Amino acid sequence: MLKTTLRASVATVSLLAATSAFADVTVYTAGPAGLIEQLAAGFTEETGIAIEFFQATTGNIMARIEAEAANPVVDVLISASWDTATDFAERGWLAPYTSPNAATVPDFLQTDTAVAQGVAALAIAWNPTSGTPRPTEWSDLTAPEFQGLVNLPDPAQSGSAFELVAALMATSGIELFDSLAANGAIVAGANAEALNPVLQGAKAAVFGAVDYIALNNMAAGESIEVIFPESGTVIAPRPMMILNWSDNQTDAQAFIDYVLSDAGQAIVAAQNLMPARADVAADRALIADLTILPIDAEAVYGARAETLDAFAGAFAQ
Amino acid sequence: MAKSRAAISPTVALAAVGLSIVVAVPFLAIVLQAIFPTLGRGSFAAPFSAFAGALGDAALIGMAGNTLLLGFCVVVLSAVVSVPLAIARALFRVPGAAIWDVMFLIPFMIPPYIAVLGWIMTLQPRGYLFQLAGFDLGSFLFSLPGIVFVMTLNTFPVVYFAVSRTVETVGSRYADVARLFGATPARAFWRVTLPLSTPGLAASLLLVFAMAIEEYGTPAALGRRAGFDVLVTAIDLRVSDWPIDLPGAAILSLILVILSFCAFLLQRWVLNRRSYEATTGKPQDTSKRELGVWTFPVLALFALVAFVATILPLLAILATALSRTISGGLAWSNLSFRHFAAILGDTTGALKALSTSLSLGVGAALITGLLGALSAYAVVKSRARGRGVLDVLTILPNSLPGIVVAVGLILAWNQPWLPITPYNTSLILLLAYCCILLPQPVRYATAAFHQIGDNLEAAARVSGASSLTAFRRILLPLIAPSLLAAMLLVFAVATRELVASVVIAPVGVSTISTYIWRQFEQGSVGLGMAMAFVTILITTALPLIVLSLMGRRGSLL
């Protein structure tokens, strides 16, 4: 029996070892998984260069890069939070690159070292069968009809939720969040965790849902509506960066070019994200259709701890 | 043999080498990370500079207290639920015993993050319970009792299987002797059978405590809303949210390790106070007693626990997997097989993830089973020096959060000077699973060794068997039932491990859990639940088939 066991474990081990392969370009990316799968397939088809990717939340990717820093393996990083691009540029980890395909990407969606893959926006995700009146403004969710029926993604866990909280605190003050809390709204984990109870009807609306996830749910037949308040919302551009330790700069640049090409941007748009290029159409509201709340990134992130404390204070009672 | 005190027995040496690779290396990396904040970048600058910040957190005392409270409550409730069931199962002829065993195995096969989502979707306002019965239990679920309830349903099988196995080994022989000397049945049970079964009970309760303080999914999903923060949620926050704080996470993990180490010392103190040898080589009467008038109440208890712990969560998972949309609710018009079709049609990479996880699960079960048996032998039966260190190594991973083990493995195995490394191959997942799950076989095997009389091995050695032969021919078969049960649990947990896999999975490799988690993250709950259901079926059926082919089912289940 010992022999059989040994043989079995040897077989398992060799099977496992065989599954690893060296890739030409290694991409670490935030979700959705379908997006990177299609981009990788399309890129390989066009150029013959293989892509290996690791997909996780932005936070988990950061932890992995941090732990790998002595011997990094990632060539291209795609984050769901623009903040990553600023942070990594400050650490001097990024290689400058401006793609020829980035000419029609608006200036606020690119820097020397990063360019947006696509853009998400935050919205109210509302369940029309919840028996509540259709909200059109953030403040509508403080109405008595929404008593105990509103979820907020945790700004401590989601970069875009944090920016929304910071921007709304600047325009409407902490009072908005005080009245939400008084109305029984709760902070419910990361983005997907906040949305699921709304689908089932346990809650009526998410205050600050990531729009493409809710739009995809709507396309799958869920009873959910995505509403962008006219007073304004925040956007979450998804930066693509080439790491300066990559010894694959040319192939990495080719991948960035592909994502910004007509074909690549069409794949982005098919995920219900806004394309980064202004000249690519999509079957959804685009940046030009939205009111964007002004954000002074430096000031906002400088006061991150204070903002989160004030937010937590409002919901602690 | 008496002369060879300097010579190290090969069994002990093997255990030492295996434990060093699987446990000591990542643990050392975590300790170094706690001390040297910039270790990830290969620098040993500013030692101990992160301690003040991590330990100065005002919320720390409260979180540590909550962690202990949660661990204690889950241990108590697990014991209350499973000990009566286990004793009935071990000493009496319970009708349908094998079926009940399978029923209690399944909760362990349900990944905790799936189980908790199933409970949320069942009990929250307008959930399945409300749709069927018109009321909901949301306020119960999102509270400390709710968390303890859900976690106990996930952990009680550990106690049930360990206690029923040990009580079975103790058997009724010793109690019969007590009765001959005039003890009442109750007195014989309390003074003889139960004390002799202490190793199994203590070992499994220790495991449950460690699992409870280390578990992330349930407290994160339920506790946050109740304002109930525990250490592991704080650790996860440091590892997965901006700004990443690896040293802080490492330091808080060491606190968890210390907590579980204290529990371990308590368990060892209990076990070392006296001898629990019950397997002496004398023939054992294994016949069980009839339940008599108690048949119906006992069956009702088994059925109730099986319904709440197994049937209800499975139904919730299945209902979600078969719903076209979640907002459609429980309606015939909403019935759809599209999620299962997507998995079987493998449009989403599901089958590849399945085969990856299943082979990793088998590998982890074999390695931890072998290493667990060797280590337990070295600790309990050998007189080798330093065996205390080995014992400590086997307990260390018990309470290390999976995500911290993952970080430790990256730090250890991604060093540029290593000529060859398992990092970025599937082997790193195997190492992670072995490290996280090793305590299970070790605890089970240790408990089993405590029950085996020393004279059995001595008899083999006197008759000329080498130490390895005696281990293989005498001791291994005697602990096989306990060890196999533990390996089954390892297989089940390894195939669904999420927290470490999410961070450490090699590029281009999906496991079952990362697949499911990606579906949830992108809002495809139905697809994730369909995958979870398929997985539960496979991870339950596969071990049962293997065991029945080996003809050992009777002895194990």
UniProtKB/TrEMBL annotation, chain A:
One of its GO terms (cellular component) is outer membrane-bounded periplasmic space. Pfam families: SBP_bac_6 (PF13343). One of its GO terms (molecular function) is thiamine pyrophosphate binding. Keywords: Iron, Metal-binding, Signal. GO terms for biological process: thiamine transport. Fe cation binds at Y212. InterPro entries: Ferric-bd (IPR026045). Residues 1-23 form the signal peptide. PANTHER family: ABC TRANSPORTER SUBSTRATE-BINDING PROTEIN, THIAMINE-BINDING PERIPLASMIC PROTEIN-RELATED. This is Iron(III) transport system substrate-binding protein. It comes from Roseicyclus mahoneyensis.
From TrEMBL, chain B:
SUPFAM superfamilies: MetI-like. It comes from the Bacteria. Residues 64-267, 354-546 form the ABC transmembrane type-1 domain. CDD domains: TM_PBP2. It is found in: Cell inner membrane; Cell membrane. PANTHER family: INNER MEMBRANE ABC TRANSPORTER PERMEASE PROTEIN YDCV. Pfam families: BPD_transp_1. The chain crosses the membrane at residues 12-32, 69-92, 99-120, 140-163, 188-213, 249-271, 291-322, 358-380, 392-414, 474-492, 498-517, 529-550. This is Iron(III) transport system permease protein. The keyword ATP-binding does not apply. The keyword Acetylation does not apply. Signal peptide: none annotated. GO terms for biological process: transmembrane transport. Belongs to the binding-protein-dependent transport system permease family. One of its GO terms (cellular component) is plasma membrane. InterPro entries: MetI-like (IPR000515), MetI-like_sf (IPR035906). It is a multi-pass membrane protein. Keywords: Cell inner membrane, Cell membrane, Membrane, Transmembrane, Transmembrane helix, Transport.
